[in-house]
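Escalation from tier 1.

The customer reports that the assembly of two entities below gives different structure tokens on two consecutive runs. Tier 1 could not reproduce it. I'm attaching the input and our single run for tier 2 to review.
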Amino acid sequence: MSGSRGILAYGVHLPYNRLARSAIDEVMGAGGGRGHRSVASYDEDTTTMGVEAARRTLAGGAPGPEAVWFSTVAPAYLDKTNATVVHAALRLDASVPALDFGGAARSAVGALRTALDGPARTLVVASDIRVGLPTGPEDGGGGDAAVAVLAGCSEDGPLLAEYLGGASATAEFTDRWRTPGSDHSRNWEDRFGEQAYLPLVQRAWADALAATGLRTDDVAVAAVTGLHARATRKAASGLGVATAGDRSETVGNAGAAHPALLLADVLDTADPGDVVALVVLADGCEVLFFRATDALAAGRPKRSVEDQVGDRADVAYARYLAWRGLLQVQSPNRPGPNRTSAPAALRRTGWKHGFVGSTDRTTGITHLPPSRVGISGGTVDDMDPTPMADAIGSIATFTVDRLAHSPSPPVVFAVVDFDGGGRMPIELTDVDPAAVAIGDRVEMTFRRLSTSDGLHNYFWKGRPLRG
Amino acid sequence: MASHGIRDRVAIVGMGCTPFREHWDSSLDDLLIDAHGLALSSAGLVADDIDAYWYGTSQSSASGISLATPLRLADRPVTRVENYCATGSDSLRQACYAVASGAYDVAVAIGAEKVKDGGYQGLNAFPIPTDGTNRTLTAAAMFSLILPAYAERYGVDGDELRYVVAKIAEKNHFNGARNELAQFQRETSAEAICEMAAVAGGLSVFDCAGVADGAAAAVVVAADRATDYTDAPLYVKALSLVAGNGSGLVDPGFDFTTLPECAAAATDAYAQAGITDPRTELAMAEVHDCFTPTELVLMEDLGFCDRGTAWREVLDGTFALDGDLPVNPDGGLKSFGHPVGASGLRMHYEAWLQLRGEAPVERRISTLADRSRALIHNLGGYPGEMVSFVGIVGTELG
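Tier 1 run:
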């Protein structure tokens, strides 16, 4: 078994909000369709969603990554690396490189393949927020999600799915495109892309079978995805194997994150020994084969894709458009936030990004934020760092602030007392303001509080513990 | 900790207060000049008679120069004081200590705030560069945290408690309607307030202090020379200040039903003044009713009633103008308005009027037959992290 590579762990973040596609037609008199799409909240971006997926991937005790690769089509920053935020939120050592794989949807599956090929234990994070013009195909058909996969070898720990190999086919043709700065993609007529894609799928599929020694009959299920819906459907039906559900009814197509999302969805229910194919149509075709192992049942993340599909709240279409910047709304007549100080953020990165407090060695009192001097007993510089991002707490008291500046008022705010010590007065998110009560259970989630001067202010919020 | 106080060593011999308004036609300098003039004339003094100044403003200007310039002071020491919304009281505290030390004969504490030039409603904190993790809630929301916590701890129905705090606003509007300096001079009912839309927690706009421009000032001299300036000085009995260390936001033991900094300052002030039963010994209290829940819990923190009983006392009218212990007879922050740097001195101004029998007859308190002392409570900050001032003044020595 020495040298065998594959998936050590995986985790998914589906945002809590959904848009019922029927709501589009109700507002616009056009567009929409059946089912829902997932919607990143106003305080989420591809980076924060990536952090959540990465946290879930590592929550089960998987070994720490030796590299973090972050891939998205909708980066929060250009020039500046986004993966470093994920790196900081995971409290990784400076020796662990964090890199962005940006630009095209294909980059995400490319990063996954490259990581699986080795040699390092690499956390691949794919994240996307799909925006289209109102009533357009991605407006309703897109989805927002992030997925992380820890690729490594069997020496690192039990593989949940062994990577058997695959193949790639590449071609330059124009089926969809977007120039930098534009908020939506454009498409060539459907039928052209179908003609261009299908031979590439056939080529990659045949090459992948040849490379792995597998036969079509060996494949239990294929997850087939791509942003070209028509070509993807045709490709799936032409493989001659059972295909996995594509989550179009409940999530939508999450672009760069969708290949890993469908793979995770399949692994959530696969039986040991099942051979799983991942087929991705993106400026060519990528085919990857995996075999589920006996370790999969025990190593799955706590929250499956299905669990998260069921954990949701509907957002009004107009509010969704406002969150994506497609509809400007009046904010409260209060000054907006000033930009975050870069030196202050660096000095306190452990707190700001890692949610690390401190615990007084003498009194055992946990201090949030970390403090040099204890609130009791007067000890100075005698504290241990205390990571609190995974702590669960209860609401001691709360309020709803309809006056404070927020990208999406009102601000719901609670004083949270953590199990095992520590108190944090903190904003809540993914919450119904009318449903908050003293004693409610809260977990922490990494969010974008605001943006000022183009500078994103990342920090943690609480959210109701569900599931 | 030693806190000896300066009981009966210093007296207030002159005070002045501008109307608190949206003073679109008055500048900060205008307000300072007016309050200064009123205070000095009430003591029969002119600017040359003043030896030193303590000038409180939270964020309307900076440094002593911003007082010395509009008043055209001649080589006088001016210290700018800032301590959040307790700024006005703390400037008085500094002036009193300076006189008590013997360094100066006549000192002035003056506080002012110009809040209506900023273009936004409400008060807005001066932006200081941070790591971006600080809370950005409004003060209204921070103080609204008290209500669910209080209801939970004492088993009071949430709707009833909401009505109770509306009654506090009703009382303060009733008193303010009898005060021509107040920003809001109209009565309103608790029922009407309860009907209003919530802006922060259960609170409506009418549960919040008025936002106004204004200034107030006091002249301070040594007690043994007070009658050189006035027949009816106010002797300073106690000056206490506690700056909280923020532990309430760290320690799960803090339950948001009390403001411990205020209770600690009150304990210190009562010791300085020799008061053991404030409810029966005080003639009145001016307290920092920035939001209605604040006044509710202050009644307990200041020792006016037992823990968990303030809500009933409010319904019983204990703190009304004709109650056992009148609280905020001038209308409080709620209806007088809250120019941050001036408010603490404005509170002393009401004690100045009431204890000397100069308050308008429509709002005159009726507790003076056997009581001669008033408490002034002024806080800055939020539940869990605040500064609190408690002072006591009286018309009698001893």
